[in-house]
Amino acid sequence: MTTTLAGKEVNVNAEGYMTDLNQWTKEIALEIAQQEEVTLNEKSWQVITWIQEQFKNEDALTIRKVGKSGVTDIKEFYELFPNGPLKKASKIAGIPKPVSCI
User: Fold this and answer.
1) How far apart are CA 46 and CA 55, in angstroms?
2) What is the distance between the alpha carbons of residues 69 and 73, in angstroms, rounded to a whole number?
3) Domain coordinates of the chain in residue numbers?
4) Which residues contact 86 (CB under 8 A, 6 or more apart)?
5) Which residues are catalytic, by number?
6) Residue 48's closest CA among 14, 68, 25?
């Protein structure tokens, strides 16, 4: 299925997660963040970049792994992406929802 984000048609799954990282742009990320009521700052962008790198390397993502990334700790991760940090951060990063997310 497709949807329009930041004026572009992008492929998404039934939950609204992008299915093709190649379609992702910062403008799309900003629009998704707004929909998720998340304000992005420099640290948020660092986390998003790290999440995308993990996805490209086919490394499974968990909140614990993000907390051990050296980019952020778990407390800050929850502050950056409140109410479901891994789900929201993954959606904004343009990757499918991690298996570890309910």
Assistant:
1) 14
2) 8
3) 2-93
4) 61, 62, 63, 66, 77, 98, 100, 101
5) 101
6) 25
Closest residue by Cα to residue 48 from 91, 11, 18: 91
| Residue labelled with tokens 């990334």 | 69
Mapping DSSP to helix (H, G, I), strand (E, B) and coil, where does residue 35 land? helix
69-98: per-residue pLDDT in tens?
A: 999 999 999 999 999 999 999 999 999 988
The pair of three-digit structure tokens given for residue 56, joined into one six-digit string:
């490209």
Residues 30, 14: Cα–Cα separation, whole Å: 20
**What's the CA gap between 2 and 12, in Å, rounded?**
6
Is this prediction's pTM over 0.85? yes
**d(C-alpha 42, C-alpha 44), whole Å:** 5
Q: Round to whole Å and give the CA distance between 78 and 81.
A: 5
